[in-house]
Every structure is written in C-alpha cells, then in structure tokens.
Specification:
Helix content is 35%, strand content 17%. By secondary structure, the protein is an alpha+beta fold. The strands form four sheets. The chain has a seven-stranded antiparallel sheet, with helices on both faces. Bound molecules: flavin-adenine dinucleotide. The site of flavin-adenine dinucleotide has 36 residues, from strand 3, helix 6 and strand 10.
C-alpha cells in the first residue's frame, strides 16, 4: 500500500510518534528544483505549524511557503521523487489532525489569498485556497450574496481547508456541505501535474492524467459497486473516507477531491457558487423533558425545511444553569434537550407563518415552544447555545476539554440512541462531558472533560474512542460528520466502513498518490497507527 511506503524516512526524522521524545532535528532537505518559495527549517518558524485546533500536534521537519501553483508543482515533484511526506495547511482550525504531520508542512495561505473575484450574474466566485470564509463573504455581501455553508470558525478558516474537509455548519441542514457549492477546483497532483476538475465533467476528465488516475479507481469500484452502496451509511452528512457514493453518482473526479483532506492533491484555486443572503430569519426554541421525543421531533421538523436545527442536551443545559450567568433564556430544571429551529423567508410575514407551522407541528410533542422574530430576541436565544464554550473552559477546573469524539453522525432516526450511547460510555468511564450539535444532521459535538493528572487517562480516552466508534458503526453512522477523519480517526476506518469500501478508499489513494507522500496517515492509517499517537497533552 502507498501509505506504507511513504515514511521511508528514518523513524526519528519522520518523528512518528513524537510523544515523550524530543523533536527530531530537521534533516537537510536538499535543493528543490524550480521552487522559488521559502523553506523554513528553524524550530521557531516550524512550531506554529505543528499545532492545530484539535488534540494532536506534530512538529513538521520544515515548512514550505510556495509562491504560486508552479511552486506547488515543483514541491510535489520533489516530494514524490524524494519520498518526503507533505502536509497541506490552511488556517490550522481543523480538529482531527489532518493539518499536522512530521513531513513538510505546506503553507497554502501566505501567497494564496488574493481577493476573491465575485461574478454576481453567475452567483459564483473565484477564490484562492488561503482566503477565509469571512473574506469571501465580505467580497460577496455588496452583491447580496454569501457562501451559505457556515462553519463557526468562519472568521479564520480557509476555503482550502473547507473544501479539503467538506466542512459544514449550522445551515448545512438546508444548504448542504461545502461539496454542494464547489463548481471547480484547480489543483496539483502528486506528480506535479496541474489539473482542473469540475462538477459535471463526468467521465470526460479535462486532463489526460486525471483520466489515467480514474481508470484503476473505476475498475476497483466496478467490482464492488453494489455492496459499497448497500453498506454506505444512511446519514445526512458525512466527511469520513472518500466520497465514493457521490463519485458513483456523478462520475466527477471533483467528488473524490472534495473532502480528501489533502491526501490526493493540493488545491491552488477554486470556483464556488454563492447564494442570496436571506432577507428575514426567525427562531423557535423547543424544550423537551423526554429525549426520545426530541429525537423524534427532529424528523418532523426537517419536513418543514428549516435553515438550522441545532440542539443542546441535558449536559449542556446543566452546565449553563450551573454557570450562574443569565443565559438570556430561562432554563428550567429537568430538560433533556432544547432544539433551536431557524426559518428563513422573504418577509417578516412569511417567517412568522413558517414559525407558526413549527409551533403547530410541535403541539403535544415539545414541552414548550418559544418564538423569536426580532433580531435582538433571536440573539438572546442563540446566546444560550453560544454560552457553553467559555463556560466549559471556566468549569473545567483541572480537567482538559478534549475533543476526541467530537464529530460523530448517525441516521436522524437514531439521534436519541446516539445521545444515550454517548452518555452511557462517558458515564462508564466517569467523564463529565458536554453534548451539543447539529440535530438536523444528527451530527453531535462532544466535549469530555479529562483529568490529565489521573494515571491511565490516555488509555481510558482511547478506549472511549473505540467504544463510541463501535457504537456509531452499529447505529449506521460515521465518526466524522463535518470535520474529516484526520489522523485521529484514520485508525477507526475499518470499524466504520465495510472491507470492500476500505479497499476502494485504498485504490483511490494508490491511484492519486502512488508514492504515498500526500498527508500519509490521514483518512487511511499507517501501519500500527493509533488515534492518540500524537496527542499534545
Ligand atoms: C472553534 C471552531 C469551530 C469550528 N466549527 C466548525 C463548524 O461549524 N463546521 C465545520 O465543518 N468545521 C468546524 N470547525 C473545524 C474547521 O474549522 C474546519 O474543518 C475548517 O474548514 C478547516 O479549515 P482550515 O483553513 O483551518 O484548514 P486546516 O485546519 O489548516 O486544514 C484542514 C485540512 O485541509 C487540508 N488542506 C488545507 N488546505 C488545503 C489545500 N489548499 N489543498 C489541499 N488540502 C488542504 C489539510 O491538509 C487538512 O487535512 C471548527 C473549528 C474550530 C476550531
């Protein structure tokens, strides 16, 4: 397998895993033919690229700062020839460690953030990968447009990272994930070939190299198409594995590239579609004292086409209640869950009518329904949802809020079962945790509070990862609804996906990256890789 071949570096130089060992010295990298960018090897310059938002950290042996797509191509030719792993990097807000690695980190921000070019007629924008979501939206807003996928990291995360992770957000329940809004990608393949892949290309790849790459992938898929599709998780969103189901439907290479977490190619620019900024929004808060009722309510709400359907569970509500601050909404005792349902419309009347529909539908289902039409009141309601992050930090005390099961997703009908599973596993290990997330996609974020002073905490955390993965697989879900697999979840791939599907994932990787230099250990595990190998605590 190509992943097995990538780290032909001496173990120390590869620095995998680095836990408990001093950082390896950067070995001499030799000249990179045709590369005009900067190569940072001093430790102070490398260190920020070894850290990311999630729980993993790995110091790269160097940081390459390419100036343009031609530089990226030179870097890839060199890396393939020298068998040096490359780790593409955006803003570093990705959670499961796809953005850190012991190879050469590739800074795709510094020279890749030219102002977006918006085409209001076509409702599209040309972007470089280092542009932030906020930057794109600022350029689109004067035209009444925006990129409707809204990760809450949008002020800092880049379009390159969003495309690589197929990111989602609160509005994904209505607008889908990033994939739905990417029209075309310009990228550089592992051998240094620059190609364009666009939605609608189908079998007619624009570049002969893409056609060559697709041939073995198509052959592998042809043999197992039916079992792969039959075993595909019936979830509303997913960013684990490669998107074989989309690819089988469209035959577009872009469907393999979006969500590939920097393991198949490096994106150097893209064209994305934009949507009109909604005229009016309104919010309904639904309280539940029964978890099963909350789970069942989500399916009924989805039929009303909400623009968001978010959830906080008992753990979250108790945390906010115990925080002693006014959350902006009276949180009663005994609540199992609150749903936040947002409706959009062209006028206040339309939004009011749509909220009234939610209220009618939830009669006798939710324990209480509160509606907010004016924006101040909506903000007060949303404050409840946003109050947790600072509170988690405050209440954690000596514990560390650690995101290692932070992105599981299950079929919507199994949402309540998934919450019960999380509560059961966490309680069995005596870990307090806060659970919240995108109920409309049955995609939950979980912040367990880990006592890192307790001996054996690492083994316990790893046990939880595997127990939750087994449970999620049994519920028909995956461990990544929108954050990707990264290094953290690559070792879980055989638990979540069928053997035929994993074999096809490997065929995709082998076809695009035969030398295994692109983010090895991400999506597909390296031999012996474990979820917490590079944990930073
Ligand atoms: C506070 C917070 C809130 C968040 N909220 C959300 C949310 O609501 N929804 C959500 O989906 N995610 C969320 N995330 C996760 C994260 O912000 C997203 O995954 C984001 O899209 C990552 O973008 P980035 O620029 O930081 O990429 P990085 O973290 O730098 O990279 C992410 C992945 O993309 C690859 N990559 C980056 N650039 C390129 C490129 N040009 N070519 C090829 N591969 C590339 C990297 O190798 C890596 O595998 C959140 C994170 C934080 C810290």
């Amino acid at each position: 397998m190509p992943q097995d071949r990538a780290p032909e570096l001496p173990a120390d130089a590869a620095g995998w895993p680095i836990r408990g060992r001093p950082a390896p010295p950067p070995p001499s990298l030799g000249p990179i033919d045709g590369f005009r960018g900067e190569l940072v090897v001093d430790e102070a310059g490398r260190r920020p690229f070894g850290e990311a938002s999630g729980i993993l950290s790995l110091l790269p042996r160097a940081v390459a700062v390419p100036r343009d797509a031609a530089d990226v191509a030179a870097l890839l030719r060199w890396a393939t020839a020298e068998r040096i792993p490359l780790v593409p990097r955006g803003a570093g807000t990705g959670m499961p460690g796809g953005n850190v690695g012991s190879g050469v980190s590739v800074d795709l921000v510094t020279h890749f953030r030219a102002p977006p070019v918006v085409d209001p007629e076509r409702r599209a924008a040309r972007v470089e990968p280092g542009i932030t979501l906020a930057g794109l939206n600022a350029a689109a807003a004067p035209h009444g447009l925006h990129f409707p996928v809204d990760p809450s990291s949008g002020e800092v995360c880049t379009l390159g990272g969003m495309i690589a992770n197929d990111s989602g957000g609160a509005h994904t329940v209505r607008f889908g994930s990033t994939r739905a809004w990417v029209e075309s990608i310009d990228c550089v393949l592992a051998d240094g070939t620059a190609v364009t892949a666009a939605a609608g290309d189908g079998a007619h790849a624009r570049h002969p190299r893409l056609a060559e790459i697709r041939a073995p992938v198509d052959a592998a898929l042809a043999a197992v198409r039916d079992p792969v599709l039959a075993a595909w998780p019936r979830v509303r969103k997913n960013s684990s594995g490669y998107a074989l189901r989309d690819y089988l439907r469209t035959a577009d290479a872009i469907d393999l590239l979006v969500g590939s977490e920097g393991t198949l190619a490096l994106t150097t620019s893209a064209t994305v579609r934009l949507a009109p900024i909604p005229a009016r929004r309104g919010l309904a808060l639904l309280e539940f004292t029964d978890l099963a009722a909350a789970g069942a309510a989500v399916e009924r709400i989805l039929a009303l086409r909400p623009s968001t359907c978010e959830m906080i569970d008992r753990t979250f509500i108790d945390l906010v209640r115990s925080g002693g601050e006014d959350p902006g909404y009276p949180l009663r005792e005994g609540l199992e869950a609150i749903l936040f349902v947002e409706m959009e419309g062209d006028s206040d009347d339309e939004v009011a009518a749509r909220l009234a529909e939610v209220e009618r539908e939830m009669g006798g289902v939710a324990d209480r329904v509160s509606l907010a039409l004016d924006s101040d009141q909506q903000e007060r309601f949303w404050h409840v949802r946003h109050a947790a992050s600072p509170l988690i930090a405050k209440l954690a005390g000596g514990r560390v809020s650690m995101q290692f099961i932070e992105d599981g997703v299950v079929p919507v009908a199994r949402l309540a079962d998934y919450i019960r599973l999380l509560r059961r596993v966490l309680a069995a290990h005596g870990l307090p945790a806060v659970i919240f997330g995108h109920a409309g996609g049955a995609n939950l974020h979980v912040n367990p509070l880990v006592d890192v002073a307790k001996p054996g905490w690492r083994a316990e955390v790893e046990a939880i990862v595997y127990e939750v993965a087994e449970g999620v697989a049994a519920l028909g879900g995956t461990m990544a609804g929108e954050h990707g697999d990264g290094r953290l979840r690559a070792p879980l791939i055989d638990i979540i996906w069928s053997p035929e599907t994993v074999a096809c994932f490997r065929a995709v990787k082998e076809a695009f990256d035969p030398a295994g230099i692109l983010n090895p250990g991400v999506i597909l595990p390296l031999p012996g890789q474990r979820p917490l190998d590079a944990i930073r605590y």
